[in-house]
Amino acid sequence: FSIKLPIEAGDEAGASGRRAALAVAAAEPTDVPDDATLKNILESTRTIAVVGMSTNPGKVAHTVPLYLHKQGYEIMPVNPNVSWLEGMRVYPDLLSLPKVPDVVLVFRPSAEAPAIVEQAIQIAARVVWMETGIRHAEAAARARAAGLDVVMDTCMRVAHKRLCS
Q1: Distance between CA atoms of 69 and 86, rounded to whole angstroms?
Q2: Are 28 and 21 contacting, i.e. CB atoms less than 8 angstroms apart?
Q3: Do 134 and 63 contact (CB within 8 A), yes or no?
Q4: Helices (H), the chain
Q5: Pick from 114, 151, 148: nearest CA to 132
Q6: What is the per-residue pLDDT across 104-163, written as a single tens digit (0 to 9) for each?
Q7: CA–CA separation, 44 and 70 (whole Å)
Q8: How far apart (Å, rounded) are the C-alpha atoms in residues 64 and 121?
Q9: Which of 16, 43, 122, 165 has the lowest tally of Cβ within 10 angstroms?
């Protein structure tokens, strides 16, 4: 099975740009853990550090952690801009947490993933879970090399509803 798309003559710059984009996409791991692995992570998790939990109740970075909290997970919000959120103590970074979370749930731009992964490694978290739209191949490779499980570009709430409800 193959698909051929037309490229207009004289569009070499566009074609080379598309080839470069495809090469970058091919270099990034596209594998999401299988359902059994995701379910195992979700069922074995008790504590979740939420990096980038939002104060805005209309954002998924606010509603997803609250959903997870209602499902029985202990949530430790990480946001350097506030001290309390939804009755929970908020921490400025992962290194300030009072205990090691099972999962570090990331709601920050992909470019910030390497620094978050380094802190997750330092505190000996078990899993780094990057929410929908968040991917960073190098950070994921670094986390895996340090023994952490990695989930990228996947909503934890959606996975939980699909696999654990």
Answers
A1: 11
A2: no
A3: no
A4: 12-27, 35-44, 60-70, 113-123, 137-145, 156-164
A5: 151
A6: 999 999 999 999 999 999 999 999 999 999 999 999 999 999 999 999 999 999 999 999
A7: 16
A8: 24
A9: 165
Residue 111 gets which letter from DSSP?
G
Distance CA 157, CA 143 (A): 22
| Phi, psi dihedral angles at 37 (to 5 degrees) | -65, -45
Look up residue 69 and give its two tokens.
Answer: 């909290």
Q: In terms of Cα–Cα distance, which of 127, 120, 18, 28 is closest to 78?
A: 120
d(CA 58, CA 84) in angstroms, rounded, equals 17
pTM value? Answer: 0.81
Q: Of 144, 157, 154, 143, give the one whose Cα is nearest residue 34.
A: 154
pLDDT tens-digit series, residues 97-108? 999 999 999 999
Q: Which residue has the tokens 């300030």?
A: 96
DSSP string, 70-84: HTT-EEEEE-TT-SE
| First CA to last CA distance, the chain | 37
DSSP secondary structure letter of residue 91:
B
